[in-house]
Structures are given as C-alpha cells and as structure tokens.
Amino acid sequence: MITTEKRTMLTIITESVIENLLLADLDRLGARGYTVTDARGRGSRGVRDANWDEAANIRIEVICTRELAETLLVHLQQHYYANYAMVSCLHDVEVLRAGKF
Amino acid sequence: MLDVVVLFFLLGLLAGLARSELKLPPALYDSLSLVLLLAIGLKGGEGLARQALLPLLPQLAAVIVLGVALTFIAFVALRRRFALPDAASMAAHYGSVSVATFAVGVNWLNVRGIDFEPQLPIFLAVMEVPPIIVGIVLARGLRSGIDWRKLGHEAFFGKGVVLLLGGMAIGWLAGPAGLEPIKPLFYDLFKGALAIFLLEMGLIVARQTTVLRHQGAFLITFGIAMPLFSSLLGGACGVLLGLSAGGIMLLATLAASASYIAVPATMRLALPAANPALSLAAVLGVTFPFNILAGIPLYYWLAERFAGVSP
Q1: Which CATH number is associated with domain A5-100?
Q2: pLDDT tens, B125-175?
Q3: Edge-to-edge, what's the strand order for the sheet holding A86-95?
Q4: Domain boundaries, chain A
Q5: Which residues from A are below 8 Å from B203, CB to CB?
Q6: Domain B25-201+211-306, second-level architecture
Q7: Residue A10's Cα: distance from chain center in Å?
Q8: Over the stretch B77-130, which tens digit does the pLDDT of each residue have?
Q9: CA distance B174 to chain A (A)
C-alpha cells in the first residue's frame, strides 16, 4: 500500500497566443510547476485546429494545493475569460512526493 | 496568365473550399516562411553591399511615415462601422505589411526580369511595427500602461524582423561570392518554397469564408478599396524616393498589403477586446487574395505610369 496525498489539478485550455502571459501569471501567483501541451478541438469559438498560429490552442496543467488552484482560477476568470477563448477546470488528484506541489 | 505560384494558391483555396482533407504540417509552414524571409533578406543584403547605406535613412523615415499615415486613414474609415478596439486593431493590420504578398511581388518581377532596388526588404522590415504602435495608441491612448519595453522588444526581435534583417546582414557581409554555396537553397528553390507556402495560404484563406458570410459586404468593400487607395499612396511615395518602376511597384504592394502574422498576435495581447476574426477575415479572406491575383499586375501598371516609362 502506497501513501498518496490529495492535491488539485488545474487544467486550462486556451489560445496559444497568451501562453507567455499566462505562465508569467502562474509563476507570480506561486505555482511551483506546470506542464504545457499543444491542443486542438472545438468549442463556442469554433474549430481550433492548430493549423497555424492564430488558431492554435494549448493545455496548461498545474498541480497544487486546493487553495492556490482556487486563487488561480479566480485570477483567470477576472483577467481572461471575457476576451479569450478559455476553458479551465479543477480536479482532485493523488500524488506521491506531496512536497513538490 | 497568372504566375505559376499563384496557381498553387488557387489549388489550396479550391481544396479548402471543397473541404478536402489536404493539410500541411504546421512545422512545414513555419519552415517555408523562414526560408522565404531569409532569402528575401540575403538578396537585399547582397545588393546593399554595392551601395552607401547612409542615404537610405531618409527613405526609411519616409516609408515609416507612409505606414503610419495608412493606419490613421484606415482607422478613420473603419471607425464609422466598428467599435473602437476593432477599428484600431484592423487599421493596424492594414497599415502594416505582409511578407507573403511582398514575396509574390518579388517573384512577379523576377519572372519578368524586372529589377528593383535592394533596400526594398529593409522597407518591409521597418514598415511592420510602427502601425502596431499606432493601433494600440488609437485604442488605448498614450498613457494606458502599455508595456513599451516589451513592445519595443517585439519590434526589434520579432521572428520576421530578426530573419529579414539577419538575412540582410549575412548577405551584406558575405557578398555575392560568399553566398554562392547557399544559393541553391535560398535563390534557386525560392519559387518552389513560395509555391508550397501559397498552397497553405490558399487553405488558410478558405477557412475565412464563414466570417465573411456574416460581415461580408463591408469587409469585402473595405478589403479591396483600402489596398487600392494604399497602393496609390505607396506608389507616390516610391516616386518621391526616386525608385525604379520595379521599386515603385513593390512599395505600392507593401502599402497595399496587410499583415496577418505579426499584427494579429500582438493585437490579441495588446487589445484583447478587439475581435481577431474580423481583421483576419478582411486581411486573409479579401485583401491577400485580391493583391496576389489582381493587385500586383495592377500596381506594376500603375508604377510604369508613375515612373513615366511607357511599355
């Protein structure tokens, strides 16, 4: 039996054009790490097929404490939701080495 | 008869409209634009090595003023129809320039054996950014917490500018003999690279049709009227600078072209409230195809009249 600890994963799917802006925000607000992947899909703003830069999406994942995840989510809602194609959600995850997150 | 590279554009356009599954890897599009930018830069640098650079400075100032003036004119025209951020953002697109359109113009002249001045690629590099700044100031005012340092960094170290000016510096330093070993890639394959690049452009343009269906009439009118007007101003500027017919035509083409790479990305960050789909539909859906299909031959016809050279 391994011992894991509960953490929260924040997933953000958004336009790749704001990647640097978002990562700077995450750093500033205290995220200790994140993973960025290229993404494509369809939503209320149409098909984002990543065929060229202006239509490219990214997915950012941050594993952190529930408290920080909520802070980040509120920040996203206040600063980006109005003008950018963005979807974000929280999920519970279990991690080893809880000190990393 | 259309240039063969333009036929590739039409193929991409048709394939896109027919919803073909044809798709180019995004990395190829990036690689081709890199080759095209470097090739244009190298060629310009090679030509500049044969002349003094200092007399060019007033010319650079003149083309910057040209780009800024075009941005203001576009803004006034667009403000009648659109909200402030949309009008300012689209005006910046039209004040700035398109490398792809320029490359098709260069190719058009090359095919016909018409010369043009080697400084034209520098004009391309310096005309890209000032309209972006004007667009942002028009929308947000002078004192609006714009990060000027970041913007300046973008202006001098954006991908396009680095490749163009870097290519020019290499061409200038190496000279014709030094460039000989890399000519097969950058000069001989230029047309092939441009052809595949335009195939992808056709596919991209085909995707703009949905927005055009909604905002169509105004965007189509503006997307054709603006470049026609800009080309006159650009051509006149070319005459003032004492360019040859080929140079006047390329400056008219630069003035008529609208950016779809550097400006949309910067505007998305600086003016988030502006709808990027509007500008892209006008620039890609109307102005870019208009320029490469009809504009460029027309601008040369104009340039010949302007230069007083009758065929």
Answers
A1: 3.30.70.120
A2: 889 888 988 998 898 877 666 677 777 777 678 788 889 889 999 999 998
A3: A35-39, A57-64, A5-15, A86-95
A4: 5-100
A5: 51
A6: Up-down Bundle (1.20)
A7: 5
A8: 999 999 999 999 999 999 999 999 999 999 999 999 999 999 999 899 889 888
A9: 33
